[in-house]
Amino acid sequence: MSLILCIEAGTDIGSVALAKNGRLLSLRENLEGKHHAQNLAVYVEEILRENDLDADELDAVAVGKGPGSYTGLRIAVSLAKGICYATGKPLIAVNSLEALVQVALEDFEAGILDLESLEDAKLLPMIDARRMEVYCQLFDAQARPLSEVEAHVLTAESFAAERAQGRLVLFGNGAAKSKMLFTEPGVHYVDVTPSARGLVKPATEALKIRKFEDVAYFEPFYLKNFVATSSSKKFF
C-alpha cells in the first residue's frame, strides 16, 4: 500500500491531494487566487483528518517542483519539506508541466475536454511567465516528453513545425497568449486547471522506484532567476 500527499501551488491555484495506491482519495483546491500561505496547510490538516490519518502514516510527500510562480513554489516546497522533516518521510518532486498534462489526460478520459480524440496529438501545456513569455514543454498523448522545459517568448513563428503537422493541443494559464498568433485549424485550445491530482500518477511511479529528493537541499525548479523590483511610488 502507498499513501502519498500531493501539493501543487505553481500558479494562482493551490491544491492538496491524497492518493492511495495511485488512486485519488481526497482533494482540496482554491480556484479564487493566490492564498497559498493561508490555505495549503489547512488543506493538509483537513485531508488527513477526513481520512483518519496522521502525517507519519504517509509513505511520501510529493510537490509540484515548477516551473511556475516563484512565491507559490516556495510556499508549496516549504510546506512539503516541513512535513518530510517532521515525519522522516521521503520527498518526491514532480514537473508541474507534466502534472498539468496528467490532469488534461484525466479530463479527456472523463469526457470533460472538448476533443473527440487525442490520437497522434501533441500536447503543449503553458504556464504564464508574464508578458508574452510562457513556461512550456511538448508531450505526446501518453504524457511522454518530446522536448525540454523552456521559458519561451511567443511569436507568430513559435512551434511552427508542430502547428503545420496539426493536432496540437494547448492548455494552461499561459495558452491564451497564443490565440491571436496560432490560428491554424489543427491547433486546439482546451480548459485545463492545474491540480495536485496531476501529481498522483508520476509520484506513485517515483515511489515505486524510490526516486526521492534530498530534503535538506532540494529547491524548486524556477527556470528563471527571481528578480526583485523596486516600487516606483514615493513614500517619503
From TrEMBL:
InterPro entries: ATPase_NBD, Gcp-like_dom, T6A_TsaB
EC number: 2.3.1.234
Keyword Transferase listed: yes
The keyword DNA-binding appears for this protein: no
Source organism of the structure: Alistipes ihumii AP11
Single Gene Ontology MF annotation: tRNA N(6)-L-threonylcarbamoyladenine synthase activity
Record-linked CDD domains: ASKHA_NBD_TsaB (cd24032)
Catalytic EC class: transferase
Name the record gives this protein: tRNA (Adenosine(37)-N6)-threonylcarbamoyltransferase complex dimerization subunit type 1 TsaB
Domain Gcp-like: 34-140
Keywords: Acyltransferase, Transferase
